[in-house]
Design a protein that fits this description.
- The protein has 309 residues and is mainly α.
- The protein has a domain at 117-219 and 300-307.
- The longest helix is centred in the C-terminal third of the chain and has 52 residues, at 200-251.
- The protein has 13 helices and no strands.
Length: 309
């Protein structure tokens, strides 16, 4: 049995992964050397940021959070079923875990593309609001209401609250920010919230000369990060594809399957799976992420109401 394990394709692939992990760890140390990471603020709950990330993915895809969670649960159930068909304990757990993470991994490129399209459409919508104010006698809140009634298709769910005239315009902007869960959307909503008490002429000048060029610069950074993330995903797809191919090859050979069904074989599978997960983690660490400050629009609204009370 030991001979079968040592000379099996999975064990050989595990050795290659081990060398790759060491090389990538060295690369990560070199890249991050001397770089000071911003300290994350403590949050009262660990579940809230997780749900917020899941909701952001769902909104980007045009789905509800409930539908997105059901899709991930269904993927986990399919993975569990595949693991039960194969039969070994580690494979059952591993296939269930793969099922949980398969959906965001596979839909990652499409999600990022949709997010960029949504943010581009939001900047275009802001430009259209400025043009509407420039060419008409509307105030900013009236132009925002009109834009909520006639949004771009990709923004329909996000900017729909702007058309709700039963609420104040400040509350509507806060709701748009809550639905969008986007750094550019947060900044746009904060700027609009602060501009509600300025004259239309002053807002047009400020938006044309300052705000919209800044949004365009932010979009350029987002597009560059998206291109880099695509390259990192390609490396992840290669690792996942090779691992899946080697696993299928091994499971079709009776001797190898019997060897990996024993306790020592299960340990080898766990080690190889851990190396694969470590490679994915290192790839994620090497992928640059733009740090952004999320403005608390509720607090801004409170301060503005207190100032003009």
């Amino acid at each position: 049995m030991l001979r079968n394990l040592l000379f099996s394709p999975v064990f050989f692939y595990g050795q290659i992964l081990f060398v790759l992990v060491l090389a990538m760890l060295m690369g990560a140390l070199v890249v991050n050397r001397g770089e000071r990471r911003p300290q994350a603020q403590r949050r009262p709950s660990r579940l809230a940021p997780l749900l917020e990330r899941q909701e952001a993915r769902a909104v980007t895809l045009g789905w509800t959070l409930k539908g997105w969670l059901w899709l991930r649960a269904g993927s986990a159930a399919v993975g569990l079923l595949v693991g039960l068909i194969i039969g070994t304990p580690v494979v059952v757990i591993g296939c269930a875990v793969v099922g949980i993470f398969a959906v965001p991994f596979v839909l990652g490129p499409y999600t990022d593309k949709r997010r960029l399209q949504m943010e581009r459409a939001l900047v275009d919508q802001t430009r259209a609001i400025v043009d509407l104010i420039r060419t008409s006698n509307q105030t900013l809140d009236e132009a925002l209401t009109d834009s909520g009634a006639n949004p771009a298709p990709i923004l329909r769910h996000v900017v729909r609250p702007l058309a709700d005239t039963q609420r104040s315009i400040r509350d509507r902007l806060i709701e748009v920010d809550r639905r969008a869960l986007s750094p550019i959307a947060n900044r746009v909503c904060a700027d609009l919230l602060l501009s509600l008490d300025t004259s239309p002429e002053a807002f047009v000048i400020e938006a044309t000369e300052v705000l919209i060029p800044q949004y365009e610069a932010d979009l350029t950074i987002q597009e560059r990060n998206h291109a880099i993330a695509q390259g990192s995903r390609q490396a992840g797809y290669i690792v996942a594809g090779l691992m899946a191919f080697m696993f299928i090859v091994v499971m079709h050979v009776d001797n190898f399957r019997a060897a990996y069904s024993r306790p020592l074989g299960q340990v080898v599978l766990v080690i190889v799976a851990a190396l694969v997960m470590l490679i994915f983690w290192i790839i994620g660490q090497l992928t640059p992420r733009a740090q952004w400050v999320r403005w608390n629009l509720t607090e801004i609204k409170t301060q503005l109401e207190r100032r003009y009370a």
